[in-house]
């Protein structure tokens, strides 16, 4: 079996006269892995991503938030606040709670939104908690 390829071992590598030599970087692409199930990895990641359900506030908590909003609306120059609110997920049920800090620019009672000075719009029905800057943790 040792001598099976002896007759071709010392022959020069064949070179095509009609085609240029392929660079190694291009040649390596033909050995790249094939994704038979394109999009499957993204689907698995999306399914594994966790969301939370929106917590319902008690009547007492709703009254406290309403009182805080009225106080903020009456102030001439409201101080810095931190608002924790629910953001619904665009792709699956549930969502996430996020916090935004800033100065209140406007409270729109018709559209039921709070506008912060940085442009953040917060729907009033999604607010979980409002803290003034001196109550906020760093």
Automatic annotation (TrEMBL):
Residues 40-75 form a coiled coil. This is YolD-like protein. Keywords: Coiled coil.
